[in-house]
Structures are given as structure tokens and as C-alpha cells.
Amino acid sequence: MGKASRKQGSRRGAPLANRPAAYVARPFEGLPSETDWVALREILPAATATVTLSATAASAGLPQSFVLATVLPMAWPALHRADGLVMVSTQSGPVSGDASRDLVMSLLAASAAPEGEAVPVVASATAETPRLQDLLAEGADFELTVHDGFDFWVAEANLDDAARESLQAANESVIPTVVLGSRPSAYLQRIGERSYLRWVLPHDEDVALDALARLVAAGTHRLGEDDRLLGAFRACGLLIPVWEVDPQADPEAVDPALAALGERLDAAVATTAPLTGEERRARNGLQTRQVTLR
User: Fold this and answer.
1) Hey, how many other C-beta atoms are within 10 angstroms of the C-beta on 89?
2) Which pTM does this prediction carry?
């Protein structure tokens, strides 16, 4: 047997604990509010959500609940606060083929850390690492909260000078974000002098792309006369289209337009006819403007 064959055989026979986590295209599929999980990981600057774990997970040494946070001080992957609260960052930490297992690795590390200590480094997930889908309490709610800054990190008295400076710098750089209520996981964000609507669509990315192409071909993809569809991000198996909107428009004006656009998109998703030539060209145009996050 050659060296390459021996190496391949060794990998196939390796214990699960030594095998890297397999790639999962939609790592948060099956979790409550999948689109919010993706938003927390990819597009929200300052947000949190409390996650309730099953009794089985709690009996294995994990907390009854923990807090997901977009970012933690010093870009820590996780933190076990002095008050006992376990916090896990969605935007820092290990990066494997499965973001669900990555977050569990950070959760395990934070749970094992003494209270009042940060977790600056987390080991990579393996094929044996549990997935979030295995740990959450059945029927658990998932309510996301968008913040104006990062004061949710820790009580100021618990911050050393470096962390306090990190908090101040982070608060000064946070992107103002407003949650739109007419559709889940739709956010109006102000970046510099411009405003953007970013909407995490709940459909498989290919289905969402086809539907969006149908709207573009029909000229019904706009929120209003002054906006434009810039393109879309691909993230965790979902599509996040981005519209630039009038920077003077307030959320109360944008939200009804989003509701109407959502109805048109729903109808396009439900359409089963093959794409027309014009719709295929629109789809190709959207694909050229796609950016894959992570």
C-alpha cells in the first residue's frame, strides 16, 4: 500500500473525536427562527438572544440557558461572567464546516471556565461535537434583541482597562440598526450617509434566488421609486438581498413597502413554472453580484 493510500485509510478509520466537523450548507436549519441565527452570525453589529437548553444538556454540565451575542469584548469567542451568565459570540471563535458545532464548542468552553473569566481561544469542532439542534429545549422560544451598543457585555465594574477601551471603541463604531416588523429578519441599517435594507430570506438560497429573479424580470423588485437592489449575500445556505433606500426615509415608511414586497416574493416562491429567458438573465445578473459570507 502506498503512502497516500495509508493516509486515506488512516483518516477513514480515525476516531470521531479526531475527525473535523463535516460541512453543513445550512448549519442552523431546524432551529427556531433560522433566519435570526443567520442574522446574528452575519449581518447584525450588536444583538443578543437567550437560548434555553434541554434538561439532558443541563444534566451534562451545561447551563440551563445561555446568551448568544454577536460580539464580545476583545473578540472573545465566549465568556463566563462573574454573575454566572454564559455568553457565546456568534461572530468569533472556531470556524469549521458546521457553524452549529462551532457555537457548541464555544458553549462547552465557556461552561467549563470559572465564573468571571473569558475564553480567548476555543478548539476546533470535530465530528463528535454535538450540534445545537441536539441541545436546545423542545419548543424553546428564540427572541432576538438588537442593541444600540455593546453595554450588554458585562457590568462596567467587571471590565479591566483594556476591555473598557474595547467597549468604548465598539460603541463608537456600531452601525445603527432598526428591526422592521412586517417580515422576520429584515433590518434597516445606516452606514455613513447611506441606508440599506438587509433581509434574510427563509427559503433555500436557490429557491430564493429564482424568486428574486422573477421579480427583477417583472420590474416588481423595488421597495419604492428611490431604492435599488444592489445584490445579495449568501450566508449559511440562505440568501440576504440588499437594497439601498432613501437615507431620509424612516422605518415607518419602509416597513409597509417591505410587507408588499414580501407578498410579491411569496407569490414568486410559489410559482412552479420554469424560469423564462428574461428571468434566467435576471438570475445570472444577480449571481454576478453575489458575495458569499465566510
Assistant:
1) 24
2) 0.89
